[in-house]
User: Which sequence fits this backbone?
DNA sequence: CCTACGATTTGGATCAATCCAAAAATCAAT
DNA sequence: ATTGATTTTTGGATTGATCCAAATCGTAGG
């Protein structure tokens, strides 16, 4: 189907181009382009007449074409390893919000914790000429990946976990401090036997938690009790049971994440014990379900939404200034105390179901 | 910084183009292009020599440039309204997996249930010339939106909810049948007072549930008891309490989604009642947490991962054949019976925490 | 009236691929 | 060896924007 000749704008079929608008407004292609990019060079009268033509012809900007010449796609690649995890969901929501404000749009990929899948996606992102990458590295990612990306000249901000050597961009939480807060809180409640469960893989986020745990325990002159396990609900369920059968069972446990804490609470019930009374339980993440469990779970809030926003901000900064100093944004966690570690105040009355704080709350509605 | 002349390939700086490879392999640009697109036209020997040059020069395909000429971006836009909801997380994971297999990549946006935000994103997607859209329409979306997209010549598959008039592409679950399954199950358990709570907005997914409820209840010769509420946990918490205070309280409730069901169970406990014994509770979605609640929640499983895969498949089909007949894929829900509706079998022993079926299971690990 | 000078505007080249009609190379049959 | 039919390869045009150096406009100053 032959396109109509250029000088006759064809509003219905085919796409309207800069050329068409230029003809309609009686100016040149270049001028229209300047108007589109809000350049101050264009005279006010011209600007308005061009705008009118744009509206009249129903023009649609072609970012692909623009990107070809300007080598800026206004596009970012985001890689997470488990988008079904609400924690990442919230983080992605934060990223999305921050990018939206800057007229950026993001590709999302779910690596399923497979370095191969992750690499394939990154290569595809390169082919699409994204301006940068937000990477939450899959378990077992080769540390050289960051240099590879550097070699590609691809700005990359790591999120939550990090690999490779220190001068990199990174946004995450201070897990070390988070665990310390938990320990301090439990000690203040009178606990002396405080165990930590979770984490066998040694990525940055796991190591930080261990550091925090051992340091805080030592600081209080207590003996550490640490169990390496997988990071699943079931692992929590099993770990707590084996701990409680030991000669001197712990009176409190801190879990690598909330899921494990849920499992641990279920494990306690299985033994006929009551979480929060017979053994305190503290989780990490403060997912929305933490407020809803029975009993409500004390948890180290790690603010995924805010981390997502920060990471996006960092990425945009790096894109604007590729050679600026690398930056690390480490948010401070906050301890959200609830009944699972608060025997004293434990009331049989779950008054109203506690709501997470407004900033990160999103109504969990379903279709 | 001036580019080196074309005939001297510059592997290090700047990007290698088709031209460079052509020169290196001693063929023309066109031939290289054909090799890249796996065209059968090229002779085997030529193909190999070109492949060698591609490898040698470290060429990176420029999809943007390709898209400009071929008007196919290998790109899709995905709009959901709450990515922090694990239900959508799982759905997006399904979409991602299906697209990955076909070498497609997707933009993701979170509309936050705002039609304005949604529209802005769709416009941006049009500027990026995505090949198609997967849309889970925000609450209150103008039904004309679908025609608008049609006018844009933009293939669009609706997911989970739908708006506009019937000849459209759609992937979702048969909520009507799901609720019917729940009613039948409860009746089989001897219940005669079965209430339904949830849903004040009248989008397709809500209406379908109502239809299923009223039809099934009438089919059993029972009296309906239906409460319109918001779709939050708190709404479930409050609704159940007001229901239980009525002269003839229900012996079972079906909830619009699992979150509300969790709220309802908490509400029952608040009244000193035991969910599953004093009143059966059934949810919808079968999110992973359903297996973990106390008691474990009976729920209508709606398979978000599979829906995502189907939706992606539909979109790719529509892109390949824009004028083919519109298609609706409606998956059948399955009732996942657990203790919250199974008083007879209720054991005090939560044996091992039940795991969701392998197909849709993803370890909920955290960094 | 002419010249500067700043403010606007412009045309041609360019970005990196694909499309397509036509040319060149290869092979088979006469 | 020539013709005809295939099989491969190719150059030039095209896609829709941006870049940039140069052209044009407007007007204030001499």
Assistant:
């Amino acid at each position: 189907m032959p396109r109509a000749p250029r000088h006759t704008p064809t509003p219905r079929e085919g796409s309207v181009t800069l050329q068409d608008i230029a003809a309609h407004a009686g100016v040149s292609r270049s001028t229209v382009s300047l108007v589109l990019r809000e350049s101050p060079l264009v005279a006010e009268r011209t600007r308005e007449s061009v705008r009118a033509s744009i509206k009249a012809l129903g023009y649609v900007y072609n970012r692909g074409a623009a990107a070809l010449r300007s080598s800026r796609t206004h596009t970012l690649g985001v890689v997470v390893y488990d988008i079904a995890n609400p924690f990442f969901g919230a983080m992605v929501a934060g990223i999305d919000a921050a990018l939206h404000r800057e007229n950026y749009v993001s590709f999302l990929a779910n690596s399923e914790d497979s370095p191969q899948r992750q690499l394939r996606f990154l290569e595809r992102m390169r082919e699409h000429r994204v301006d940068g990458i937000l990477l939450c590295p899959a378990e077992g990612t080769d540390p050289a990946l960051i240099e590879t990306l550097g070699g590609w000249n691809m700005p990359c901000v790591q999120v939550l976990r990090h690999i490779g050597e220190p001068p990199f961009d990174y946004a995450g939480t201070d897990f070390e401090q988070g665990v310390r807060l938990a320990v301090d809180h439990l000690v203040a409640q009178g606990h002396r036997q405080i165990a930590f469960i979770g984490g066998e893989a040694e990525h940055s986020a796991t190591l930080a938690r261990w550091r925090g745990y051992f340091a805080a325990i030592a600081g209080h002159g207590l003996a550490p009790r640490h169990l390496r396990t997988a990071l699943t609900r079931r692992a929590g369920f099993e770990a707590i049971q084996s701990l409680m059968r030991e000669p001197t069972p712990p009176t409190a446990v801190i879990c690598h994440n909330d899921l494990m804490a849920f499992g641990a609470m279920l494990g306690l019930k299985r033994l006929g014990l009551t979480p929060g009374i017979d053994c305190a339980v503290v989780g990490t993440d403060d997912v929305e379900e933490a407020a809803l469990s029975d009993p409500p779970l004390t948890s180290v809030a790690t603010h995924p939404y805010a981390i997502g926003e920060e990471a996006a901000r960092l990425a945009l900064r790096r894109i604007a200034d590729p050679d600026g100093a690398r930056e690390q944004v480490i948010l401070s966690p906050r301890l959200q105390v609830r009944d699972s570690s608060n025997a004293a105040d434990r009331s049989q009355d779950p008054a109203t179901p506690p709501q997470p704080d407004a900033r990160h709350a999103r109504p969990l509605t379903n279709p």
Remarks:
- The CA atoms of residues 113 and 138 of chain B lie 4 Å apart.
- Chain B touches chain A through 82 residues (CB under 8 Å).
- The longest helix of chain B spans residues 304-320.
